[in-house]
Amino acid sequence: MTATVLVCDNETILRRLVRATLGDGEVRILEACDGDEALELARRHRPDLVILDVMMPGRTGLEVLGELRRDPKLADTRVIVLTARAQVADRDAALGAGADRFLAKPFSPGELAAVAGELLGATR
Amino acid sequence: MSSIEGRVIPLRPGVGQLPSDARVSQAILNASPDAICFVGTSGETVISNEKFERLAPEIFLPFPGGTLPERLVALAERTADPSAFRTALDAVLADPTLETETEFELPAIGRTICIHTAPVSDESSFHLGRIFGFRDVTAEREAERLKTELVATVSHELRTPLTGIIGFAELLLNTGMRRENDRAYAATIYEESMRLKALVDDFLDVQRIEEGGFALALEPLDCGEMLEQQVEFYADKTDLHTIELIVRDEPLIVLGEPARVVQVASNLLSNAVKYSPEGGPITVLAEHRGGTIRVSVADRGVGIPAGQQKRVFQRFFRVDSSDTRKIDGTGLGLALSRNLIEAHGGRMGFESVESEGSTFWFELPSGRRDVVRRRRVLVIEDDPGAAALLSEYLTVDGYAVETAATGEEGLRKATKDPPALICLDLGLPGKLDGWEVLIRLKSNPTTAYVPVVVCTGNSDRQRAAALGAADFLPKPFSDVRLKEAIERLLPTGRGSVLVIDEDDAMRALITETLSQHGYALTEAASVGEARRALAENRPDVVVVDLTRPELDGFELLECLQSEQETRRRVSVVALTDRHLAADERRALSDRAVSVLQKNEYSAHELRRLLRQALGDAPATEDSDQTR
């Protein structure tokens, strides 16, 4: 079964990078430009993995993460949080809000692929 | 040891050098930047300064009869963190020897106050009480907060393109076999690098302009032409939009640095396209408005929600609505554009309705008057033969001549667009004779500075001079006599320059720079000399050094440009070593003053500014390579 990955970032370039890294027919990629769109797509498609940017206009990534964790149907979804703020406090905030992994921008596509592969392997 | 209760005691003077006077103590306290209150051992106020008396009613609630410690206890409730404040205060009240500092926020009045307190003892270590110094640190904390926020935003904005660059480069290196993607990846890396570069450039520009150290190379620029090119460029890039350009007046000459004016126009057009993703009409309108040229760009796009409008020009601000989240941008374009326009002495603003569209506009000072001022002569003369003769003499000398056959017509033309010089015949027919025309020209601020040469058979020279005529030409006049008068009033050639500088070395440097370039030079080392030179030589341009502390530069400018005997505005090139604020630049540019920052002084730049002040067409580089 093809895994579904939802990537939520307001920056087009980041969504393209995630698609180029994970795409290639092995996983299905869904893209969302903001938190509201991400929640809507998550509820509709029940992705295996959600990759969330923290700093977005409107709802932040951490708020979206909170919503996911509160929704019984989505609470178990694996989540990677991406952030441009690489402070320890940001990492703690992301992990505290229930993120499975945390990657700081700029991140290595190889690292993202490895982390995503690990999380996707664990769900199956 | 005297008791300190209930009365003001003087603070003891040090080793008897100061008069032991309560008024001296009070004066010293009043001179402190802090609000100070000294309380005795039972908490009563012994002495306080004026700043404290002003601050107290602002931060404390009305609390009749309370001592300062009691009022501080009550203040805890109003601070952002009452328990922390109470802990700090308890420590102070419990330990008379404690010296400490505590800072607290008062959210109700939006202020942050820092209190420093220390015990006060006399020379025999007898405890007299405690001094409290209050300092309002709201502005400092706000500046620090903005700085932190800026660093976080810049770091985020820089990391985004950097992530794209590093990420795609790594993909390119690791997946060399998938050739079909390589080109696309390299293209993405290139695009993101350019975006990073633009971001860094914009950010540094904004920083530089806000710090004031930003020099613009102003020259006359035709806005109509510039907009035509920009509109063409953007029209080619979009199929969804129709871009219409309306140029109401021609020519629309502004004084600006061409690349910078283009940058602003391009920013507005690119925003209009970006923020109307559904397409639709975009209208670019350029017109004269007062002494300025106004350019507006209107779209029918997503518009700006009313609640976000006041932040539109903030750095990194981006309109946030469901319509705009898919639109990329740095949030620096408008901040930079407005800063650039203001650095030119112009204004920028907008009107916007959410879901209906936005109109962004800017106004720049018109450069037109400066360009044509020296070249046009208005001849007010009813006799067609005399008018034709004068026109011929003047045309041969290179002036554009306009004629008026009656006083009314002459006044109308002179007021509408003041010429460089007016030749006025006194014997005009009709209700308005030449005398009346002269009086009206000189009493109207628009035309008062235009020199008037009175041409007449009437020999009432004194009366003409008293009414403000600059010269008197008895009929029949010769072309030599006319030329003499005009050359004195409107010197030709490369122009005459008065150099005002109290510093001999600097004055010599400037005159040396200009001496071999055909300028008629006069020097002045004092305000008095400057005034005499202005009256006698009627220079076209004054180069004045504003860095001399003996001269109040702005006062001198005022004097230069309102001087009755000069009868016209003099262009000024001012040397300064100060970074000028935007409003100072605007004030100067309104008065035809161009500024040369001393740290950017070069012979080339000085001559360029001079040519500009003289209204010469912007000279090409090679015309200045003669030295």
Short description:
Chain A is α/β, with parallel strands linked by helices.
Explain this structure.
The complex is a heterodimer of chains A (124) and B (627). With 124 residues, chain A is of the alpha/beta class. Chain A is 45% helix and 22% strand. Chain A has helices at 12-22, 35-45, 61-70, 88-96, 109-123, and strands at 3-8, 27-32, 49-53, 78-83, 101-104. In chain A, helix 1 links the parallel strand 1 (3-8) and strand 2. In chain B, strands 2-1-5-4-3 form a 5-stranded antiparallel β-sheet, with helices on both faces. The interface between A and B is medium-sized, with 24 and 27 residues.
List keywords for this structure.
heterodimer, A: 124 residues, alpha/beta, B: 627 residues, five-stranded antiparallel sheet, 22 strands, 42% helix, disordered C terminus
Layout of secondary structure:
The complex is a heterodimer of chains A (about 120) and B (about 625).
Chain A lengths: L2 E6 L3 H11 L4 E6 L2 H11 L3 E5 L7 H10 L7 E6 L4 H9 L4 E4 L4 H15 L1
Parallel strand pairs in A: 1-2, 1-3, 3-4, 4-5
Helix pairs in contact in A: 1-5, 2-3
Chain B lengths: L21 H9 L4 E6 L4 E4 L1 H10 L8 H8 L6 H13 L5 E7 L4 E11 L5 E10 L1 H37 L4 H33 L7 E4 H15 L3 E7 L5 E4 L1 H17 L5 E10 L2 E8 L33 H11 L3 E7 L3 E9 L2 H5 L3 E5 L3 H13 L3 E5 L2 H10 L4 E5 L8 H10 L8 E5 L4 H6 L4 E4 L4 H11 L6 E5 L3 H12 L4 E5 L2 H11 L3 E5 L7 H10 L8 E6 L5 H9 L2 E5 L5 H11 L14
Parallel strand pairs in B: 7-9, 13-14, 13-15, 15-16, 16-17, 18-19, 18-20, 20-21, 21-22
Antiparallel strand pairs in B: 1-2, 1-5, 3-4, 4-5, 6-8, 9-10, 10-12, 11-12
